[in-house]
Design a protein that fits this description.
This protein has 290 residues and is of the alpha/beta class. Helices cover 54% and strands 11% of the residues.
Length: 290
Amino acid sequence: MEYKWLDNLDRHLRKQTELLESIRSELVRQRPQLDLLALAAAKDELIEAKQFFDTTQLDMLGTLRKIIDNNMSLARFGDGELRLAFHLGYVDRAQKNTHELQVALKSVLKNQLNDLLESKEQHVLVGMPQVFRNTHWAKVWFDTWPFLKDLLSDQLCYGHASISRPLFFERHGQQGVELWRELWDGRRIMLVTGKNGRFEFIEELFGNASAIERLDGPPVDAFSDLDNLTEKCLKSDADLFLLSLGATATVLADRLARAGRQALDIGNITASYLNVFKGGAWPESLPLVR
C-alpha cells in the first residue's frame, strides 16, 4: 500500500506522455497545411521579389566572377540582416538589435541608390538571398519585402548572398573552391572575426594567400565595436579584408569599400566548406565561441 502512490504517478506520467505524443502527431499532420497557409499569405511578396531579382540578381558563379573581374567588395544580406534592418523587435543570438544598427544596414542599400543617382561606379556588390519558396523564407519576405523594395533599384546589379553558404559548394563543388581561391591568390589577407569564434582558416580554401593576419572583434554584439574595427582595418597594409562578423560585416564591408579598400563579407565560408566536403556540422548549429 505504501507504494501505491508510485503506481498512480507512473500511470499519470504514461497518460501525459501519450497525450503529448498525440499532440505532437497532430502538429506533424497539420504541418503541410500550415506551410501552405504561410506560402499563400506571402504569395504577393514572393512573386514580386522573385520578379525583381530574376532580372537584377547574378547567379552564384556570376557573383564571384564579377567581384574578381572588377575588384569589388561584397556586403551580404541574409535573413538575419533583413530582419535586423526592418524589425527592431527581431532577436538575433549574435547581435543585439538597435536603431543605430538598423540605420547602418539601411545605409548600405541607400549608398547604392546614391551612387546610381550620382553616376558613380558600383564598387560594392550587395548580395541578396535567393527567393526560396519555403515556410521560413515566406515569412522573411512577407516581413521585409514591403520595406526593402523601396531601397532597391532595377538599374543596379545585385549579387547572390549564398556564395559562402553550403548551397554554393553543393552546386559548384571544386569549381567553386577554385574560384574563391582565385580571388585571394597571392594576396595579403586580414580576417576580421569574433574573438575565439568558430571561424578557422583551412589550407583547402586559403592556402594560396601570401599572408594572413587576424583582427578579433567581439563574438557577440560586434556592431558596438564598429568604429574601432574600421580604424584598425584602415591602418592595416592588407590588400583584402575578409569579414565574418554577422550583420556587422555587412556594414563594415561597405565602410571599407568607400574608404578605398576591398572587403568581402564571407560569413561562415569555412564551416560551409567543411559541411559539404567533410561532413561537418551545419554552420548555424556551431557555437558562437569555441
